[in-house]
Amino acid sequence: MKILWLCSWYPNSADEFDGDFIERHAKAVTLYQQVDVIHVVQNKHLLKGTTSIKKEERKSSNLNASIYFLPLPDTGFEFFNVYAFNKRYQSFYKQQIEQYIAANGKPDLVHVHVPVKAGLTAVLMHQKYNVPFVVTEHSSAYFEHIPENYFSRNRYFRFVTKQTFKQAAAVSSVSNWLIKRLQSLFDIQQTKLIRNVVDTTRFYPQQHMNERKRFIHVSMMHPLKNVSGILQALAILQQQTTSWEMWFVGPPSKENLQLANELGLNENICWKGALPYNQVADAMRSADALLHFSNYENLPCVINEALCCGLPVIASNVGGIAELLNASNGVLIAPGDTKALANAMNEFLSGKVQYNQQEIAAAAEKEFGPQIIGEQISNWYKQVLKKK
Predict the structure, then answer these.
(1) 316 by DSSP, 3-state: which?
(2) Across the 388 residues of the chain, what is the mean pLDDT of every consecutive 10-residue run?
(3) Is position 27 within any domain?
(4) What's the CA gap between 92 and 75, in Å, rounded?
(5) Glycosyltransferase subfamily 4-like N-terminal domain spans which residues (predicted)?
(6) What is the pLDDT of residue 240?
(7) Residue of 134, 138, 139 lying closest to 165 (CA atoms)
(8) How many independent structural domains does the chain possess?
(9) Do 182 and 80 share a structural domain?
């Protein structure tokens, strides 16, 4: 099979974390076949300072990714800037597709990651070349309570999203929670659950003897992750016991640093900052439990990674998280309930709840390992093409 990926998000030199989970999916598939990726950066913040078209290539075994940066138009009016960029984006993407087909022939299947904006290119390819495509959606923004949700976006965004889902041969996501929501909103032919992949050569259980039990939180510290809520829960926990330490991995905000200081938590907290992926894995393996207290979410990779390290997870019951956690590997609490979070941490520290690190890791590897996910995606392609 010749597979072409069109990605709306993908890691690049301006942001190594932009859709890094998509790249890990791609690498998993390359265990079974070659994958070509075309990504045209659409994030305006990442395009600032771009004065001419810039191309990057990220290559590894069986994976060829071409990433393009386009100059931002400046008409003096934001509306016309957006309109001009969308036109330039689609025109450039079309040109890259034509060049790709001229050099490699038509792909058997196109795989879109996130409908806007790459989905429209797949739709046009399907119409012109009769190449079927599938879609993987990673965003949780299909619920009205989530900021900048699908319903609040402009007409172009909603049109591209609808057309992408309508004409896709199949749609996948990492959670059943999101799949069911997409089915309720759009005309979707068939669906497939495919979890986020974990690099199990980095994330695996490791024995350690911390002087104090170590909690860890890993994220980019965006407001949705509710780091302030974790700090408030830690303040409650500190009144009960100080036999713990907390590592935050990710770029801390000034507000959260100030809040930690005001709550008197500095002696128990270590702000590790943003770390390279391999160092994130090192930090995860050294911890005893993961805290994840998001206000809303789909199904974050960090939970899969923690489970592969054998860590129990204490998380808010949002999105598809409940699909992964049970009494054997973690605790679910109501979003925003800082007292419940503090109580769950205290019960873990007191030994009232116990977990088997090796069993957690073994079960997680069977579900999230690269060989498992890569085979699932490759077989999905075969099933889709067989029905066409």
Answers:
(1) strand
(2) 96 93 96 96 88 93 95 85 90 95 96 96 96 96 92 93 97 97 95 97 92 95 96 97 96 96 96 95 97 95 98 97 97 97 96 94 97 97 90
(3) yes
(4) 19
(5) 94-202
(6) 94
(7) 134
(8) 2
(9) yes
Q: Are 324 and 297 within 8 A, CB to CB?
A: no
Model pLDDT, residue 115: 96
**Tell me, what CATH number does 320's domain have?**
3.40.50.2000
Q: What pLDDT was estimated at residue 147? A: 87
* Predicted local distance difference test score (pLDDT) of residue 216: 98
Residues belonging to the chain: 388
Contact 40, 92 (CB under 8 A): yes
Phi, psi of 352 (to 5 degrees): -65, -30
Dihedral angle over CA of 317, 137, 361, 338, nearest 10: -20
Q: How many CB atoms lie within 10 A of CB 365?
A: 20
What's the domain range around 295? Answer: 213-367
Residue 287, class by beta-carbon neighbours within 10 Å (0-12 exposed, 13-18 middle, 19+ buried)?
buried
**334: Cβ–Cβ under 8 A, 6 or more apart, which residues?**
316, 317, 340
Query: Do 178 and 219 lie in a common domain?
Result: no
269-273: strand order across its sheet: 269-273, 244-249, 213-218, 289-292, 313-316, 330-333
- Do residue 286 and residue 152 come from a single domain? no
- Measured CA to CA in angstroms, residue 113 lies from 14, 23, 30, 134, 138 at distances of 19, 10, 16, 9, 8
d(CA 161, CA 80): 21
Shared-domain flag, residues 142 and 227: no
Tell me, what's the pLDDT at 38?
98
* Cis amide prior to 117 (ω within 30 degrees): yes
225 and 186 within one domain: no
Same domain, 363 and 373: no
Q: Is 306 helix (H, G, I), strand (E, B) or coil?
A: helix
Is position 207 within any domain?
A: no
pLDDT at 43: 87
Alpha-carbon separation of residue 46 from 11, 12, 49, 154 (angstroms): 11, 9, 9, 21
Based on its alpha-carbon atoms, the radius of gyration of the chain, rounded to whole angstroms, reads 22
Q: How far is CA 18 from CA 93, 365, 380, in A?
A: 19, 24, 25
| Residue at 163 is within a domain | yes
